[in-house]
Amino acid sequence: MLKILIADDHPVFRRGLKQIIAEASDMVVADEASDGREVLSKVRAGNYDVVLLDISMPGRNGIDVLAQLICEKPRLPVLMLSMHPEEQYAVRALRVGASGYLTKESAPEELVAAIQKVSTGGKYVSASLGEKLASIVQHEAEQLPHERLSHREYQVMCLIASGRAITEIAKELSLSVKTISTYRSRILQKMKMKNSSELTRYAISKSLID
C-alpha cells in the first residue's frame, strides 16, 4: 500500500484528492500538510512513498520546498500539482528534481496513474508536456543564459542583480555565505559573465528585476 502525503493549502482540494486516492486499491493518504514548513516537518518525521506537492503555498513556494526535499530525501518521489499552465513551472520543477508534474485540471485517472508511475522510480508528464520537453531539448542551444540556471541559481542571480550583498542573500535563504559564493561563481560561469555588474545589466535588460 503506497503511503501518500498531500501538501496543499486548500482543504477542499485536499479532500478531493483524498477521495480520488481512496478509490485506488493500492494507495492511501497517510497525512496532509498545508504549507511548506509543515511538509518538511512531516517528511522528516514520517515515512512516505510519494509526496503530492502544490507549487503555490503560503510561505516557501513549492519549488523551494521541492529543492529542500530533493536535498534531504533524494529517493522520495515528488509529484508536483499546480493550477498554473504546464509551460509556466513544469520545466523548472523537473529540473529541480520533481518526479512528475500535473495541472489540477487533470483527470482523476491520470493522477492515480502518475502516482503509481513515480512510486516505482519513473517520471510522469502529460503527452502535451512531453512534446514541449522534446522541443526544449532540441532548442537547448538557443536558450537565453538565465534559462540555463537551476531554480536556486536563478533565485540567487536575481538577488545579486538587485544589489543584495552575499551575506544578506545567505541570511534570507538560510544558507551559508560560502554556499552563496559558490552559487555566484557557478552562475557567472554558466552565463559567461565576469562580475555582478554584468549580471545586473543583463537582468535589467531582460526585465528579470524591477
Could you walk me through the main structural features you see in this protein, from its secondary elements to its overall organization?
By secondary structure, the protein is an alpha/beta fold. The protein folds into two domains: 2-138, Rossmann fold (3-Layer(aba) Sandwich); 145-205, Arc Repressor Mutant, subunit A. Helices cover 53% and strands 13% of the residues. It is built from ten helices and five strands; from the N terminus they run E-H-E-H-E-H-E-H-E-H-H-H-H-H-H. The protein has helices spanning 11-22, 36-45, 62-72, 86-96, 108-119, 127-138, 151-161, 166-173, 177-190, 196-205; strands at 2-7, 27-33, 50-54, 78-82, 100-103. A five-stranded parallel sheet has the order 2-1-3-4-5, with helices on both faces. Helix 4 links the parallel strand 4 and strand 5 (100-103). Helix 2 packs parallel to helix 3 (62-72) and helix 7 (151-161) packs across helix 9 (177-190). It is globular. The model has no long low-confidence stretch (mean pLDDT 89).
Give a short overview:
This protein folds into 2 domains: 2-138, 3-Layer(aba) Sandwich (Rossmann fold), CATH 3.40.50.2300; 145-205, Arc Repressor Mutant, subunit A (Orthogonal Bundle), CATH 1.10.10.10. It is built from 10 helices and 5 strands, in the order βαβαβαβαβαααααα.
What is the secondary structure topology, with strand pairs?
Elements: E1 2-7, H1 11-22, E2 27-33, H2 36-45, E3 50-54, H3 62-72, E4 78-82, H4 86-96, E5 100-103, H5 108-119, H6 127-138, H7 151-161, H8 166-173, H9 177-190, H10 196-205
Parallel strand pairs: 1-2, 1-3, 3-4, 4-5
